[in-house]
């Protein structure tokens, strides 16, 4: 990868408007505001958000998110706690939900709170900063409800910090177990909490499915969609390969919340994707949608149209991200495809989303961007392609897009009832890249 010296990012009009009234605070907060705040400003502008919403989102980010992003990188790029959100340890990841022919893109970001006590005996799992942030936001924003977040914190973790500290002292490497996503939608702020369970003595970083179910059943003993998911996991050859590792909840009143259950599979063939996305034939999906998904996955993987459906997607054989030690308990996150199962009251089957980790699979960032933009153009969704390309160039200040990969981390897809594909690109700021700090 070739480091380059680009011109500084040109601030957006909204960034310039509000920054004059936002005082500097300390070196750590100022570092994160100037990096992530400007990234967010560029993304919101590229996605066509109104100036009023841009102001709201940036002010929220300045006051509520930036103070919890932790210390800025120190000498030799040293940080006390490296997050699983970025393969180099960044505590934030952005996403660009692509427009449809009738809608604009949506911007979201996910962050892990970090404090001076992260990873110490006081906070061995690094929960304190994120939980404090969530409770402060809930006290200020009436629509934020932490009932489900509190339930899973109580049932998927143990609560004797001294025992976790002893495991760490004995050589256990703890990593990210809680992150929060913020999104500005037409109805206002939306927050989600993501939890990666970690019980004392847990082997290989994986919680057995039965223990997940104990916690889930306390909230909803009888759920048809969850039962359909379990049947698939137990009876399908593809289902039996899946590894549960994370869940997410909407931070709203429980009767309005949904639960997303995240799993990994080692398989990347389209035959495997078809089996999972149809829940082994339990979900009727039009063949046209399946073929659209197939061409999307080929486009972002840099593969030809005649690539066999039964063949695994080729990848970098020696994938060695700089924060690879972070993945020692969850090495599954460095290979295979990811899925979530959207469990909500009422439906008989879950909604399913597939994630391809393009940080490992497929071409460099420029070719990857060209691939997904080409697919969008071919499907009548190309209105924001050039804005997306320019936004990526602005965010990648330390190298050329064609000189490496990792700025675009995942591409996800969910089938919508109207025949369209709900597609999202995930973007890592590479904040701890040596060329940036």
Any overview of this molecule?
It is a single chain. This protein is of the alpha+beta class and 437 residues long. It has one domain (13-427). The protein contains 12 helices and 10 strands. It has helices at residues 13-19, 27-46, 51-65, 128-140, 147-155, 161-169, 209-219, 224-235, 270-277, 287-301, 365-378, 385-395, and strands spanning 92-97, 106-111, 178-185, 188-195, 243-250, 259-265, 337-343, 351-356, 408-415, 421-427. The chain has a 10-stranded antiparallel barrel, surrounded by 7 helices. A hairpin with an 8-residue loop joins strand 1 and strand 2 (106-111). Helix 2 packs antiparallel against helix 12 (385-395), helix 10 (287-301) packs antiparallel against helix 11 (365-378) and helix 11 (365-378) runs antiparallel to helix 12. The protein is globular, with a radius of gyration of 21 Å. The chain starts with 12 loop residues before the first helix and ends in a 10-residue tail after the last strand. Pathway: Secondary metabolite biosynthesis. InterPro entries: ABBA, ABBA_DMATS-like, ABBA_NscD-like. Pfam families: Trp_DMAT (PF11991). Keywords: Transferase. This is Aromatic prenyltransferase.
Order of helices and strands: HHHEEHHHEEHHEEHHEEHHEE
- Strand coverage percent: 15-25%
According to DSSP, the number of beta strands is 10
- Widest sheet: strand ordering: 1-2-3-4-5-6-7-8-9-10
What is the mean predicted local confidence, pLDDT? 92
Number of domains: 1
Computed CA radius of gyration, to the nearest angstrom: 21 Å
The assembly state of the depicted protein chains is: single chain
- Sheet having the most strands: 10 strands, antiparallel, barrel
- Could you estimate the helical fraction of the residues in percent? 25-40%
| Number of H/I helices | 12
Please state the structural category. alpha+beta
Which descriptor suits the 3D outline? globular
């Amino acid at each position: 990868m070739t480091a380059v010296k680009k011109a500084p990012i040109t601030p957006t009009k909204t960034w310039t408007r509000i920054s004059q009234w936002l005082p500097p605070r300390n070196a750590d907060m100022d570092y994160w505001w100037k990096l992530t705040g400007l990234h967010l400003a560029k993304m919101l502008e590229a996605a066509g958000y109104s100036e009023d919403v841009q102001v709201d989102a940036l002010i929220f980010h300045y006051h509520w998110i930036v103070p919890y992003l932790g210390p800025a990188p120190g000498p030799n790029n040293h940080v006390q706690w490296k997050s699983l959100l970025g393969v180099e340890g960044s505590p934030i990841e952005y996403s660009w939900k692509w427009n449809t022919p009738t809608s604009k893109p949506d911007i979201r970001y996910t962050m892990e709170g970090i404090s001076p006590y992260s990873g110490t005996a006081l906070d061995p799992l690094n929960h304190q900063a994120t939980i404090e942030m969530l409770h402060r936001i809930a006290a200020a924003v009436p629509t934020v409800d932490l009932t489900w977040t509190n339930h899973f914190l109580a049932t998927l973790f143990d609560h004797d910090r001294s025992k976790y500290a002893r495991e760490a002292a004995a050589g256990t490497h703890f990593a990210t177990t809680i992150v929060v996503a913020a999104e500005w939608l037409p109805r206002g702020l939306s927050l989600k909490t993501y939890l990666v369970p970690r019980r004392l003595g847990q082997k290989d970083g994986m919680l057995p499915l039965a223990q997940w179910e104990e916690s889930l059943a306390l909230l909803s003993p009888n759920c048809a969609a969850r039962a359909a998911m379990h049947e698939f996991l137990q009876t399908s050859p593809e289902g039996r390969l899946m590894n549960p590792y994370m869940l997410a909840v909407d931070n709203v009143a429980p009767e309005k919340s949904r639960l997303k259950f995240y799993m990994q599979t080692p398989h990347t063939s389209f035959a495997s994707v078809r089996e999972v996305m149809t829940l082994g034939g339990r979900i009727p999906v039009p063949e046209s949608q399946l073929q659209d998904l197939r061409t999307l996955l080929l486009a972002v993987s840099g593969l030809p149209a005649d690539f066999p459906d039964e063949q695994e997607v080729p990848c970098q054989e020696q994938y060695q991200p700089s924060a690879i030690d972070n993945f020692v308990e969850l090495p599954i996150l460095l290979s295979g495809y990811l899925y979530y199962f959207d469990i909500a009251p009422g439906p008989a089957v879950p909604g399913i989303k597939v994630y391809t980790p393009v940080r490992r699979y497929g071409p460099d960032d420029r070719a990857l961007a060209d691939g997904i933009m080409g697919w969008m153009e071919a499907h009548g969704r190309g209105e924001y392609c050039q804005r997306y390309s320019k936004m990526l160039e602005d965010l990648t200040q330390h190298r050329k897009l064609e000189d490496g990969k990792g700025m675009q981390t995942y591409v996800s897809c969910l089938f919508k009832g109207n025949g369209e594909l709900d597609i999202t690109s995930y973007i890592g700021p590479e904040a701890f890249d040596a060329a940036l700090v």
